[in-house]
UniProtKB/TrEMBL annotation:
Protein name: Phosphoribosyltransferase domain-containing protein
InterPro entries xref list: ComF/GntX_DNA_util-trans, PRTase-like, PRTase_dom
PANTHER family from the UniProt entry: DNA UTILIZATION PROTEIN YHGH
Pfam families, sorted: Pribosyltran (PF00156)
Domain Phosphoribosyltransferase: 128-217
Entry superkingdom: Bacteria
Family: Belongs to the ComF/GntX family.
Amino acid sequence: MFVLDILFPVRCLGCGYLGVYICPCCEKKLHTVNTQACIYCKKSSLYGLTHPICKRRGGVDGHITLFYYDNTLKKIIKGIKYSLTTDAWADMLHIITKQGRYELLFYKNIARLRAQPIPLSEGKEKKRGFNQAKIITNTLSLLLQIKTTSLLKRKQDSPPQAQIKRENRFKNIKGAFYIDKGKKAHDNILIVDDVVTSGATVKEAARVLKRAGAKKVYVFSIAKG
């Protein structure tokens, strides 16, 4: 292990500082979301609950996020994804636990809630070696003392949403998810993802889950764009 530390030293994914994946300086640079907003109209909303006037059939019922997806956080999250290591998530999860403790209490009070990570395709998860949404979900499960579910599956690889123009993202993700025939979704689902930008991915996931019987579908993300 000592030899590996010399050959491949741990560096901050934000600035290159030696010893940690997210240094205290870069942690302080993270831009906290102080006011949650409706995922549809983007206007202020308590706990990010979807406004009654914005509600739609098969839609998301609320979205809580912790940070804005600024340049520092982009470097950190992309670094974690493409360094192909789960070790870097330890620092990120520590920040999530510390920063989101108050906001996450909302989810703890929802009865019969199950946490569902946004799935990767089987091929992509094997190639990467992990699914970051699953890692976040496992941490939330322990924090909130709720069970997880893996009902939602991904049909195939589609071009990454980040590479698609914003106006084309809903079309790109349409039909990407499914639930095995005959299986029913739990009453309340918490979709978990690392970043929500246009919201196309989580909205499509919510549509599929509600079609399978979910009554309420909420979303948690580390960041929003």
